[in-house]
Design goal:
This protein is of the alpha/beta class. It contains 13 helices and 11 strands. A 5-stranded parallel β-sheet has the order 4-7-10-1-11. Strands 2-3 form a two-stranded antiparallel ribbon. A two-stranded antiparallel ribbon has the order 5-6. A hairpin with a 2-residue loop joins strand 8 and strand 9. It starts with a helix and ends in a 7-residue tail after the last helix.
């Protein structure tokens, strides 16, 4: 039983519901999506800053963008995602392997790394690998989030709430494109070129001007109103009617039912009893005489010339 459970765990694949929301399925927020696409095509724009209310799809769009990015070619076994074509930007380990007999390359997905607000400085820039130092007695460097984000995207949710010392680290690395670690007897220098993406809520505080200058594009997003969502709602309601195979007035009624925002107006006289209906007919007949001789006699004659 344990072997079967282990085999089932290995063959388990997460369902589609756990996958990120598709980028193309986001309705509205065209400016935000355009800014992300521009940053993905040309990383030299300097990053994207998205400010807006909660629930406007900022984090959802960033995580959905990761599935649209094309794979990149990197060196096998490199913790910094070094580009084999850029020999000048290789890390020390890749330079040694290149001098010994060439580099093996592979295709990897472009990294999209989240920088949590509660992250420590060691986790961001990297530190001494304590586990390896205690078990094997070797002094080695454990890469941080900046190393993993090299040649990719570094996403900061609620960037206006980030600690000041982490902001200073990001400013230094973003300006130089290189992370330098001099601590605990370690001297490490590795490339750290990434596209900085930040989001935040202006009601929770302002962003530091120094960090604001590192973003090339800034977008203000707002919660979509009912009027802006009306076209998408009508399209969804119409598709619901077409799926049911309805046409004409039935399709219009089904459209209103599927819409959810509008209710069909009650027809005049709907819901009346039989007696009330007959009284309404009598009142109408009393106001307008029946067509016949009496009606013709009551009409004024035309003047003769």
């Amino acid at each position: 039983m344990q072997a079967e459970g282990a085999l089932a765990a290995q063959n388990f694949s997460p369902p589609d519901s756990l996958a990120p929301f598709p980028f193309t399925a986001i309705v509205g927020q065209d400016d935000m999506k355009l800014a992300f696409v521009i940053a993905a095509i040309d990383p030299s724009v300097g990053g994207v800053l998205v400010f807006g209310d909660r629930g406007t799809g900022k984090s959802t769009a960033v995580r959905a963008l990761a599935r649209l990015l094309p794979p990149m070619r990197s060196v096998v076994g490199c913790a910094y995602n070094c580009d084999p074509a850029a020999t000048a930007a290789l890390c020390d380990g890749c330079k040694k392997r290149a001098a010994q007999g060439g580099l093996k390359t592979t295709l990897r997905a472009a990294p999209v790394i989240d920088l949590p607000l509660g992250a420590t400085e060691d986790r961001v820039v990297g530190a001494l690998d304590l586990e390896r130092a205690l078990t094997q007695g070797e002094k080695s460097f454990e890469p941080g989030l900046l190393a993993k984000a090299n040649r990719g995207f570094l996403y900061i949710d609620e960037a206006n709430l980030l600690e000041d010392h982490l902001v200073d680290l990001l400013l230094d690395v973003a300006a130089s494109g290189e992370n330098v670690v001099e601590r605990e007897g370690l001297s490490v220098r590795h490339p750290a070129r990434f596209v900085l993406i930040g989001s935040g809520n202006p009601e929770e505080g302002e962003l530091r001007p120094q960090l604001l200058d590192r973003f090339g594009l800034a977008v203000d997003v707002k919660t979509p109103s009912d009027r802006s969502r009306a076209p998408a709602r009508r399209i969804r309601a119409r598709s619901c009617a077409l799926r049911q195979g309805l046409v004409g007035r039935r399709a219009q009624a089904a459209t209103q039912d599927c819409d959810g925002a509008r209710t069909p107006r009650r027809r005049r006289g709907a819901g009346r009893s039989a007696g009330e209906g007959r009284k309404a007919v009598r009142r109408a007949r009393s106001r307008w005489p029946a067509r016949g001789t009496d009606a013709v006699a009551r009409r004024p004659r035309a003047r003769e010339f």
